[in-house]
Amino acid sequence: MSVVDPEVLEALRAVEAELNQRWPETKIEPSLERIAALVDILGEPQRTYPVLHVAGTNGKSSTSRMIDSLLTRIGLRVGRYTSPHLQLVTERIALDGSPIAPAAYVDAYTDLRPYVSIVDELGGPAMSKFEVLTGMAFAAFADAPVEAAVIEVGLGGSWDATNVADAKVAVVCPIDVDHVEYLGDDVTAIAKEKAGIVKPGSVAVLAEQRPEVAAVLLERCAEVDATVARQGLEFGVLERKVAVGGQMLKLQGLGGVYDEIFLPLHGAHQAGNAVLALAAVEAFFGAGAGRQLDVEAIREGFAGLVVPGRLERVRQAPSVFVDAAHNPHGARALAAALDEEFDFRKLVAVVGVMADKDARGILEALDSVASEVVVTRNSSPRAMDVDELATIAREVIGDDRVLVEPRLDDAIETAVRLAEEIVDSGEPMSGAGVVVTGSVVTVGEARALFGKEPA
């Protein structure tokens, strides 16, 4: 990564160690009381700029980055808050399209610490790590100051700490089952929770959903008198063609047609995220009914997009991709993109998942595209035991197609070696590939192994 003062890095590590003493992001207590108390003490920083709030099961981070890129290209100063991070925690709070500087992150925490202590002493559970980070982001954006903030929901919606913000535009990405231990496995109940980000008088920009999910979202919009824009009705993808390094799109926005859009990302799911982001930005500016945004600015905003860890190529010959799919819905989108856009004769998947995730569902999604699977684990204490993952993989994939490497670096090396064997068969190297997936942590650590900087 870029050179950073060792003292600053040490201070950053100390802040993280202190934050890690709090409730982790995997533990929630459904209440906005603590974060509401904090922002009240701070003077409601989240109300000093308009907010675009992004919820859903998959696609939130990609869509948030797209919205950020479009708004920035149009000329606004933008703050972006996303989670989790891939490599460095500073990625979560972005200003002007880049992660906040480590020194600024430390300063933001130092400034907030006394007020967090006040809230901790009010009684009940102390503030969670995610609540503190959310407060830091809100304050940093107010101090910048930003002209728009793109805020990604951490978990759920109604009770998520980010929901003390009242969004001008609420964006709901595709909803599926995930985080069963917190949200349950009833997709309509999950939808009701996520619909909580739609506030009175806002514009709700909705991705295509299951019928029962769409019904829940529309009911919420009617309750709070929100304006509705639906993918597949008011806006959508008109044309999509695979291109070198991504895809060419023709998009129907709320205000008109945007053609010759190059999106440097792979997969139909990313095209869906792109038109969702476009509609959100149009809604933010009040575009629609024939009033269109500058098409060239939209083209440039998409063309300059950087979304790390989403079918991102980190090596050539053989091609190695990393993708943060961590649930069956995301893994199915990954498999479809690999099948439709690449002509691999042999694809080796390196898979490391968290213990609380649906490993079987992820592996079932990859079964049709992966020639072999190397199971491994990342460094997180929440990572699934590699032997347990191997047992599931053998049941799904078959004994003869599963290898086990407890260390991620060894797993990637083994996968590359397996992919390279295609040369011995006379096939061109371009016919071989490796994809590292299963967890955001796995992908972040893989990016670091390939020398990629946080982005």
Q: How would you briefly describe this protein structure?
A:
The chain is of the alpha/beta class and 455 residues long. 41% of the residues lie in helices and 18% in strands.
Keywords:
globular; 17 strands; 455 residues; 18% strand; six-stranded mixed beta sheet; 15 helices; 41% helix; eight-stranded mixed beta sheet; alpha/beta
Please describe what this structure looks like.
Strands 4-3-2-5-1-6-7-8 form an eight-stranded mixed beta sheet, with helices on both faces. The protein is 41% helix and 18% strand. It has helices at 6-19, 33-42, 60-74, 102-120, 129-143, 180-183, 187-194, 211-223, 268-285, 295-303, 328-341, 359-366, 386-397, 408-424, 440-449, and strands at 51-55, 78-81, 93-95, 98-99, 148-152, 169-172, 203-206, 227-230, 236-243, 246-252, 257-263, 312-315, 319-322, 346-351, 372-375, 402-404, 432-437. A hairpin with a 2-residue loop joins strand 9 and strand 10 (246-252). With 455 residues, the chain is an alpha/beta fold.
Number of strands: 17
Proportion of residues in helical segments: 40-55%
Give the CA-CA distance, first to last residue. Answer: 10 Å
- Widest beta sheet: strand line-up: 4-3-2-5-1-6-7-8
Overall mean pLDDT: 94
Radius of gyration using CA atoms only: 22 Å
Beta-strand portion reads: 15-25%
**What does the overall shape look like?**
globular
Count of helical stretches: 15
As residue ranges, the low-confidence spans are none
Q: Main beta sheet, described? A: 8 strands, mixed
By helix and strand content, what is the structural category? Answer: alpha/beta
